[in-house]
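Structure, all three chains, one model.
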Amino acid sequence: MDWGEIFGPGALVVLLSSSVAFAMPTALAAVGETVVERAGILNLGVEGMLLSGALASFLVAYYAKSVALGALAGIAIGVGLGALMAFLSVTLGTEQIINGIAIVLLAQGITAFTFEELFGGEEQPTIGGIADVDIPLLHEIPGVGPVLFEQNVLFYISVALAIAVALLLTRTRFGLSVRAVGESPAAADAAAVSVARTRWLALLIGGGMAGMGGAVLVLGQLNLFETNVSAGRGWIAVALVIFGRWNPLLVLGGAFVFGFTDALQIRVQAVSGGIASTVPTEIFAALPYVVTLIVMVAATVWAGRDAQPGALGAPFRKGVSA
Amino acid sequence: MRGITWKTVALLLAVAALAVTIAACGDDDDDDGGGGDAGEQADAGADKVKTAIVLPCPTSDTWCKQGFDAAKKLEAAGAIDLEVTTNAPQDTAGVTRVLAQYAQGGTELLLAHSTYQDAVFDVAEQFPDVNIASFAFELKDNVAILEEPIYEGAYLAGMLAGGITESNTIGGSAGQDVPLCHAELEAFEAGAKRTNKQVKMIDAYIGDWNDAAKGKQATEAQIDQDADVVIACGGGPATGMAQAIKEADISGFGYVGNMDSQAPKNIVGSVIYNLDPYFEAAVEDVRNGSFRPAKRYEFGLADGGVDLQLNEGYSVKEIPADVMDQMEEVRAQIESGEFKVPYVDGT
Amino acid sequence: MSVSQAATRPLWLPPQSRRLRAGLSSLGAVLLSLVVGGVLVLIAGGEPVSAYGALIDGAFGSPYAIGQMLVLAVPLLIMGLGLALAFRGRVYNVGAEGQLFMGALAGGVVAIFLPVAFDPLLIAASIFAGMAAGAAWGGIVGVLRARWGVNEVITSLLLNFVAILIFTYCVRRPLRAPGSPDLQGRSIDPNAALPVLPDLAVHVGVFLAIALVPLAAYLMARTPFGMRVRMLGFNAEAARAAGVSSRRMVMALMLISGGLAGLAGVLQTLGVSERLDLGISQGYGFTAIVVALLGRLNATGVLLAAVFIAVLQSGGQAMSVTEGLPYAIVLAIPGVFVVFLLIADRLARG
C-alpha cells in the first residue's frame, strides 16, 4: 500500500476536508454537552436530541422546502428536549443518568414512529442538498484553504456556533456562572448565582447544539432521514467531552481527531484495495475508539484528574447540603 | 441516587392488572365483532393464505420495500390476507416474540424478512403449524430458505461499469464483509473486467449496515481515489452512496430496489432483488400443501428473481452501444443457462 | 432536610401523608403514561384500551407469553444487579453491553469447542469462562480508574464499541456459521444448550437469575463488603479515612458488574440463540442501567424493575402484532413510562 496516497500533500487535504465535514454533527453536540457538564449535569440524552434534531430538520426542510427553517426546527426540538432534561434533572432533581437514557429511548421510538407514519410504504424521501461555498481568497490558501473554506454554509455556521459557545463558556459572565455552578453549586448559590436558572440555560444550549448537530447531519450531508440515522454519534459526543477534559476547544479538537481517524480508516481501505486486503476491517473500525481511549488515558495519566467539574452528576437542592 | 420505590411498582402492576380486567371485558366484545368479520372474510376468499411479513426496517429502506411491495402485490391479487410489521426488533428474543404472536394468531405463512435464523427456528419448533420463509441458512421441515443470488445482477452492472468508466477505477462499499456482499462486489468486478481489462476495483467495508453518513464517506473516499462508477451493498451504504454520486456527479448502481429517485441522473440502473417469484412460490406451496418439507427458493436472473433495471434518466455518460449489446448478450446467456456468473463469497 | 421538605411539599397535601402521596403520584404517573401512550396508539389508528389489554395479555396471557417475558427479564435482571452494586459505590459502569458480548464470546467458544460430554460440566465451564471474560473486560476499566483515575464512564462506553467489533470479527471470520450469508456465528455443542422449561419455553437460567436476587441483597446489606460499598458511595473521603481502599473497591465493583454482564451474555448464548450471534442483545446493557436506577439500586427493586421493563417490551411486541400497530410505538412507550415514573417518585418523596 502506498501511504503517499493517504498522507501525500494533495491526499491529506482531501482526507482532512472529509474528516472535518463528517465530524461536525458530533462536534456540535460535544461542545454543547461540554457546557452542560461544566454546569454539573451529565446529559446522556445527547443521542436522542441529535436524532430528534435530524428528523425535525428533515421534515421541515421537506415540507417547507427551506434548509434554514429546517435547521431552526432541528435546534428547536433539541432545545425542547433540553428543557425536558432540565425539568427532570434540575427542577425535579431526578437521577440524571436515567433521565438521559429515557430521553434516548423516547426519541428513538418517536422518531421511528413519526417517520413510518408519514412515509410508510413510500420510496425513500429526499431533500435537495446545499451547495458548497468557496470563501473568496481564503479558500486559495494552500492546505488549510480547501479543508476549511470549501464547505457548505451549514459548516461555516456550525464552526461559528461551536466557537461562540466555547467563548461563551470561557469568556463571559454567564460562562463563569456555569463553571461556578458545576464546581460548587452551594458556593455559587451563596454568591447569589441561581443554580437552577444557570443549569436550565446550559441544558437549553446543550440541547440546541445537539439538535443542530442532527440538522447538519441531515441537511448538510445526507439529504435524507433514516431510522436511527444518528448511529451512535451522540454517545461519542458524551465520550468526547471527557476526552477533551471539559475544555470546549479541546473537545472540538477531539471531535475532529475522532473524525480524522474515522475518515482515515475508510481511506486506508480505499487505498489498500479493501477486498484484497487480509487485515480485518474491524481493526480499522475500532481505530477511532481505541485512539480516543489511548489519548484520553495518556492525558489523564499525564495531567491528573482535576478537570472534572466537582458537582458533575449531583442534583442540587437549595438548602440541602450535599 | 434514588429510583422508584417498590411500592410504586407494585401499585403500578396493580393498576395494570385492573386495566387488563377492564380491557379484557372490552376485548370480549371486540372478539365477537372480530370473529364475525373474520368469518365473513373467510367466506369471501376461502383459500386466501393468512400471511404476515416482518421487516427489520421501515419501508423507505430498499431492502424492506422490496419485501413489502411483493407481499402487497399478492394481497392485491387476492392471494393472501396480509399483516405487516415494520421496524421489527433486531434482538433474537424481541423478534421471536413478534413472530410467535403471528404464529399464535393462526398465521399460515410467516415471511421473516431478515436473517432471523435463531428466532425463526424457535418459533417453528414452538408452533409446528406455521410455515416460515426467511433468509435462514439451515432448513427445517417448516422453515424454507430464500436465496439471494443478487450477484448475478451485479455482474451485468459491472459489465456496464467497465464500459462507462473513464478512469478505469470502480468502487464498491458494503456494510460488512459477509458472503452476500462479498459475492456481489466480486461479481461487479468480474463483470467490469469482462468489458474492460484495465479496470481496477476498490472496496470498503464500513462496519455498519445503517450508517448512511459513513456510507457516503466511504464512496467519497473512493471517488477521491478516482473511482467514477460505484455500487454498494446494504441499506446505509447504498443510500449514502446515492447521495455521494449525486454530489460528485459520477455514476453508480442502485442496490436491491429501484434507487432512481435518490439520484435521478446518476443511477445507471439498479440491481433489483425481486421477491415476487419467491413469495408467490411460497404462498402457492402453502395453498397446495406442498410447503413441507420446506425447500430453498432460488430465483435468479433467469427466473425473474434478480434483474438489472436501467434508469431512463441516467445522463452522466453515454453507455457505449457495444458494451450495452455485450451486456444484453450475457443476460440472455445467463437466462438460457449458457453462462453461470462465478460465485465468490470470500470464505 | 425538614426545612426543604416543608418548602417543596405540594400545598394541597397534608404533611404526614407520604404513603398517600406516593400512591397518588404514582397513580398519576401511570395514568399520564397510559394517556400519552394512548395518544400514540390513536395517532397510529389503534384503540388504546384494547391495545393496553393486548399488551398485558402479551406479557401474561399464556405460559408461553410469560416465558418470553422472562427470557427478556433475565439478562436485564442479572446485569441490573451488578450495575446496582457498582452504582452504589459510585462506579458508573456504562459498559455492560460490551461486557455482555465478551462474556458471550468466551462462554460461546468454550461451549463450541470444549470436548466434554457431561452437560452440567460443560455448561459450568462455559459460564465460568463467560463470567471471567466479562469481568476482565470490566477489569480494564477498573484498572484504568483505580490506577490512574481515568473516568470510567467514557472508558466503559468506548469499550462497548470495541467489544462489539471483536465479536463481529469473530462471527464473521474464524467462528462463522458454515453456510450463513450474513453475520452469524457457529452453533454451540448441543450438550451445552440450557434445558428449557416445558410450556413456558424459558431456559433454566431464569432460576439462576432469581437466585442472584437474595444473594445480591445479602451482599449489599449484610456483609462488610456491602458496608464498604455504601460508605464509598456516601462519602469517598470519609470512607478512605475509615480505611476503605477506594482502589480495591473500584476494582472489585468493576469485576463484579462486568462478571455479571458476562454471565448474562453466556446465558443468552446457551439459552436463547444457541450460537454466537449479535442478536443476543440490542442495547440490553443500556436498558439494564435504567433497570438498576429504576430499582433504586436495591436487589428487590431491580427485580421488579427488570420485570416491569420486560413486560412493557415483550407485551408491547405482542401488542403491536395483535393490534396491528407500528412496532416503533413499543420503542417509545418504555421511555414515556420511565419519565413519568421518575417525576412521580420525585413528587412522592417531596
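The longest strand of chain B covers residues 267-273.
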